[in-house]
Amino acid sequence: MNAERDDLVLAFYPHARGFSYVVLEGPLSLVDWGMSDIPAKRKTPMCLRRLSFLLDQYRPDAVVIRQISQGRLTRLSDAITAFVKSRRIIIAVVTRDRIREAFAYLGSPTRYAIVRAIAKQIPVLAPYVPPVRKIWNGEDRRMGLFDAAALALTFLAGQESITLMEGQPLSVSETRARKVR
Amino acid sequence: MGRLRNYLRTYRRQWHLTQEELAFLFGYQDQSIIARLEQDERTITLAVAHASELLFGVKPIEVFPAVVAGIEADVLTRMREMHERLLQNKPTQRTLVKLELLRKAEGRAIAPTDQQQV
Fold it and tell me: Which of A26, A44, B31, B88 has the fewest Cβ atoms within 10 Å of its own Cβ atom?
């Protein structure tokens, strides 16, 4: 990866309903983000088609996905890994434990605590923070967006030896303005 | 400088604007123009560059880095050509003023320049 410019990282997070993604340029500069619901029967081809579009559009330095070793998404995860490798792009697989390590400054963080920490660091995502889930409710689809952001931030924390911690949040324009100056 | 050629989509989404809303603000009736601007499929006009600066409060180079860098590179090339031409003749007072302009202009260039200095 190039040391003179910030790495462009695409975090792609497939889940039961579809997928979420974020594109980060450096640890705090959010370039793009999105979530998509996909019918279960057509999940793999549609996910790969959308991933292909994102790879063409952003040409990222690395694609980050979560580790899925069992369950219904295993085949999709393997397909994504093979597809990204075929495009000769670095693929990083991040485990749940690694995410917890990256956000260790929060103590023993729950997923919701990580969501709030991400929203604080990347204020653009703040409007997407879902309400606290009641046990009788299903998971909010917006959680996937923060899971994708957590993947990207965890990868960048390991890549650039930066430590995720609470501090002054930076908006996209502020971080970009710093780079241009 | 940023990695992407164009950050219009990033700034639009940062402020949660739809393509339709941005088209309205830029004075276009068709939202597909915004899609084409975001995909770098349409030339950035001065009106769009200025409207972006006004709307998002950032300089055009932050929204359209590749376009601005391209313009700068072209102008710098022509400046060097002109510099060489000016040095071929006997320097008059007006020539010195022009050389001073070219020197200052290169200092104002935002995009990184190559080794050759004016």
Answer: B88
